[in-house]
Amino acid sequence: MNVRKKGQAAMEFLMTYGWAILVVLVAIGALAYFGVLNPGNFLPSSCTVAPGIGCDDFKVSAATAQLILRNGLGDDLTAVDVAISGCTDSAEADGDDAWNDAAVLGGSDGITLTGCTNGAAGSRFKADVVVTYSSSSGINHSKTGSITTRVE
Fold it and tell me: pTM of whole model > 0.90?
């Protein structure tokens, strides 16, 4: 008789909490379905290129991308080119520019890449940033980073 009472108590426990867990799972599923739990809403904006090349600031609009990149490599660079997937090259960094140590590429306002297809305002944007340059020794380098932000 005792075994039966214990089994009944265990079954009641499982049924009661099972329904509660099911309701919570359905609520989480509904929130995910309607986009409330979209991870893109919670991820911060970031811009990383490579060690020694700092991304001081950045802005992405529907047709342009503006970057303020700082040379922290301890070397003057030449033949600098910056490319973002989906954009045409920048006039300030089109492969024949010099970039002195500790300087901002393109002057104080940075560089602007045009002809971009970045999506509508408010949408999430993620793309690769490729910086190619020649060091003072004459060796060519290519560094790849990423930019993640919202289109403004």
Answer: no
